[in-house]
Amino acid sequence: MSEQFDVIVIGGGPAGYHAAIRAAQLGLKTACVDNYAGKDGKQALGGTCLNVGCIPSKAMLDSSKQFYNLTHHLEVHGITTKGAAIDVKTMVGRKDKIVKQFTGGVATLFKANKVASYFGKGKLLKGNRVEITAPDGKTETIAAANVILASGSVPIELPFAKFDGKTIVDNAGALDFDAVPKRLGVIGAGVIGLELGSVWKRLGSEVVVLEALPDFLAAADADIAKIAAREFKKQGLEIKLGAKVGKAEVKKNEVHVTYADKDGEHAIVFDKLLVAVGRRAYSEGLLGEGTGVEVDERGRVVVDEHCWTGVPGVWGIGDCVRGPMLAHKGFEEGIAVAETIAGKAGHVNMDTIPWVIYTEPEIAWVGKTEAQCKAENLPYKTGHFPFAAVGRAVAMNETAGTVKVIAHAETDRILGVHMVGPNVSELIAEAVVAMEFKGSAEDLARIVHAHPTLSEAVHEAAMAVDKRAIHRFG
């Protein structure tokens, strides 16, 4: 007879492990099935985020930032350096150590919370049973009153640029280069392309980003995207818009790429090519016959606003369902579903999920863009404030960027906050809190902000909504 649980989670990534731990905290007998293996072939909990996404990319971004500052920005402080060099093997080793620390941390949390961990691929069967296929091919079946599907997502592979793990790579491959590529091509100017392109550009690579869309960072507010594009250009990150790649061939350890834009067809050669055109839900082999769970045309598990699939006791969370593919969105969905199963209130507000791109300068936003307000015929007003007028930013020598607050023209309720600049990944949290509590631009403007801090840019932008910013001309 199958071992019986209250909750089984399929997937140990951000959404899955949060769901499992919270369910266990609530007194539910919980199991988590995860198939991700680390470099040593052993189970590595945490999914893409901890293994080859959020955490390792930030480690590499920080290492490359340190090197770039050393070679480009310290002279203004009176600090001179000569002969600075980067040891890529050491940098990658540091990243791997951090990854192991965090994946091991999740395993420790499972033990502390008495979550049963299974290493293998999980498949939902009829009757809320889960079949587990271990790496050696052996299978076993467990069952639960509730099954949470959290199978995550995988990189989209282009038919003409298949990943080989060496020359044409996905995000995981771009985190494991053994040397700085002289010429790096990136297909896609999204979060992954910009972040990893920035890493290798700072370390000395010639980076060209090919983006098929005509607009840069179309998901962000246009004013913020414009400033970011200008700063990336200053850094030497070459971004070609409206560039549709049609062919990528590996010849003698080089990648020969053909792309077309408004000026016709072009050819370009790279030493490495990163394909970063997005991710797709990973639902292959997730569902057995007769489960009743539906998937849409994009392979996503169909759920309602409460993450319920419509099948009694079956839920879906994280990247394998609708909504933005963001780790923190998965975190909250996992917790919300666990609490709903336990008879408590569980909810995630999709309108206040922050977005962050960890480039230099950083980019962050929450809520509606100005273009969205126009499209929805919302009366609105805006306030801007540049970091160049913020004392702390000037002292840090990081003055690029601005904060933009969008508020309803009649009620003053905050509709969106958009930022590009130093540490905005942290500053955006204040805007999220204000919006979650239905705050107004005036609320932000009347809150005392410490001086001198970067957060003063948020304060002054809120004041600028009603044209009363203090440190701004005009």
TrEMBL record:
It is found in: Cytoplasm. Residues 5-334 form the FAD/NAD(P)-binding domain. It holds the Pfam family Pyr_redox_2. It catalyses: N(6)-[(R)-dihydrolipoyl]-L-lysyl-[protein] + NAD(+) = N(6)-[(R)-lipoyl]-L-lysyl-[protein] + NADH + H(+). Transmembrane segments: none annotated. One of its GO terms (cellular component) is cytoplasm. Its cofactor is FAD. Binds 1 FAD per subunit. It is an enzyme of class 1 (oxidoreductase). Its EC number is 1.8.1.4. Disulfide bonds join C49-C54. Keywords: Cytoplasm, Disulfide bond, FAD, Flavoprotein, NAD, Nucleotide-binding, Oxidoreductase, Redox-active center. FAD binds at K58, G122, D319, M325, L326, A327, H328. The active site is at H451 (proton acceptor). InterPro entries: Class-I_Pyr_Nuc-Dis_Oxidored (IPR050151), FAD/NAD-bd_sf (IPR036188), FAD/NAD-binding_dom (IPR023753), FAD/NAD-linked_Rdtase_dimer_sf (IPR016156), Lipoamide_DH (IPR006258), Pyr_nuc-diS_OxRdtase (IPR001100), Pyr_nucl-diS_OxRdtase_dimer (IPR004099), Pyr_OxRdtase_I_AS (IPR012999). The keyword Protein transport does not apply. Its main location: cytoplasm. NAD(+) binds at G188, A189, G190, V191, I192, G193, L194, E195, E211, G278. One of its GO terms (biological process) is 2-oxoglutarate metabolic process. Belongs to the class-I pyridine nucleotide-disulfide oxidoreductase family. The active site is a redox-active disulfide bond. This is Dihydrolipoyl dehydrogenase. It comes from Mizugakiibacter sediminis. The lineage of its organism: Bacteria, Pseudomonadati, Pseudomonadota, Gammaproteobacteria, Lysobacterales.
